[in-house]
Amino acid sequence: QVQLVESGGGLVQAGGSLRLSCTASGSMLSINEIGWYRQAPGKQREFVASAAGGRAPKYADSVKGRFEVSKNSAKRTGYLQMSEVKLEDTAVYYCNAFIRPMPNWSAITEYWGQGTQVTVSS
């Protein structure tokens, strides 16, 4: 069974940097797309960034120019490099991926991680 596990969250000062990782485990043919969402207290979950083969990375306007998303297919890992973080970046960050699991590789399936807390302090 495919699972996503995030790591790298924590406490960071405003203006600092942090890198989140998301590693997929289980039997799979490929990871088509891997991305990140976040949910701040009292707010809805929102899209942050995503990376997929064959297209340019996508970013929410709020993080464009500050965050960089990437994926390493060989390591089955996605990354979110966060720079120049702001107080409003405080949230639980969730990994999201579209994967072809085995043995049913013909069906692209969406998976979510359990989330990692990022707290930005002033």
Would you mind describing this structure in some detail?
With 122 residues, this protein is mainly β. It is 0% helix and 58% strand. The protein is built from no helices and 11 strands. It has strands spanning 3-7, 10-13, 18-25, 28-39, 46-52, 58-59, 67-72, 77-82, 91-101, 109-112, 116-121. The strands form 2 sheets. Strands 2, 4, 5, 6, 9, 10 and 11 form a 7-stranded mixed β-sheet that branches. A 4-stranded antiparallel β-sheet has the order 1-3-8-7, with no helix packed on it. A hairpin with a 4-residue loop joins strand 7 (67-72) and strand 8 (77-82). The model has no long low-confidence stretch (mean pLDDT 95).
Please name the defining characteristics of this protein.
single chain, 122 residues, mainly beta, seven-stranded mixed β-sheet, four-stranded antiparallel β-sheet, elongated
Question: What is the fold's blueprint, element by element?
Answer:
Layout: E1 3-7, E2 10-13, E3 18-25, E4 28-39, E5 46-52, E6 58-59, E7 67-72, E8 77-82, E9 91-101, E10 109-112, E11 116-121
Parallel strand pairs: 2-11
Antiparallel strand pairs: 1-3, 3-8, 4-5, 4-9, 5-6, 7-8, 9-10, 9-11
Helix residue percentage: under 10%
SSE string, helix = H, strand = E?
A: EEEEEEEEEEE
pLDDT < 50 runs, ≥5 residues? none
**Number of DSSP-assigned strands:** 11
Shape call: elongated
The N- to C-terminal Cα distance equals 41 Å
Main pleated-sheet profile:
7 strands, mixed
Structural class: mainly beta
User: What fraction of the residues are assigned to beta strands by DSSP?
Assistant: over 45%
Roughly how many Å is the radius of gyration?
14 Å
Overall residue-averaged pLDDT value: 95
What is the number of helical segments per DSSP (H or I, 4+ residues)?
0
